């Protein structure tokens, strides 16, 4: 007597059930099979029924008893597909896993960009404050050097050097403010602000 297969060893697709062989993976979700090839294991039913009349002579063609018809059902079931269905299912699962990995990577990239923007912004604020005090000190130095030159205590070289240092400090301050503004834009972008 043949043993009846358990429900866990059967693959169900739609209304068709088939036994999973020892080399085939067990498929618990019929949606995977349906996503790969709808009704690929269910097969097709084709029925053709030509109807008409037949007679040995033209005069008796439409007489009683000359009608004929034929019924020819066909069944098209894939017996051996060479593992095509299994590999198609594996391809769908692999594409799903790739999509999940890309989604997780996008989330991690977003968190990293936000953290980097916040860290650079806090560091830039401290550097801007220090550079602002440096600019104020260089401006005071330039004013003192100019006053000393006007009184004849120093050469004009001291005024030029102090002015050059003042403009260099101002340029550094402008670059730091630009970096802070770029960091703010990057933070806004990382938080999903429309870019």
Molecular structure report:
The protein has 195 residues and is an alpha+beta fold. The protein has a domain at 109-190. The protein has helices at 30-36, 84-150, 156-190; strands at 10-13, 16-19, 44-48, 51-53, 67-69, 72-76. 7% of the residues are buried.
Main beta sheet strand tally, sense and closure: 2 strands, antiparallel
Low-confidence stretches: 1-40
Query: Level of helix content?
Result: 55-70%
Q: First CA to last CA: what distance?
A: 69 Å
Strand order of the largest sheet: 1-2
Succession of helices and strands = EEHEEEEHH
Mean pLDDT: 74
Share in β-strands: 5-15%
Key phrases:
195 residues; alpha+beta; disordered N terminus
Can I get a quick summary?
By secondary structure, the protein is an alpha+beta fold.
Topology diagram in text:
Layout (H helix, E strand, L loop, with lengths): L9 E4 L2 E4 L10 H7 L7 E5 L2 E3 L13 E3 L2 E5 L7 H67 L5 H35 L5
Antiparallel strand pairs: 1-2, 3-6, 4-5
Helix pairs in contact: 1-2, 2-3
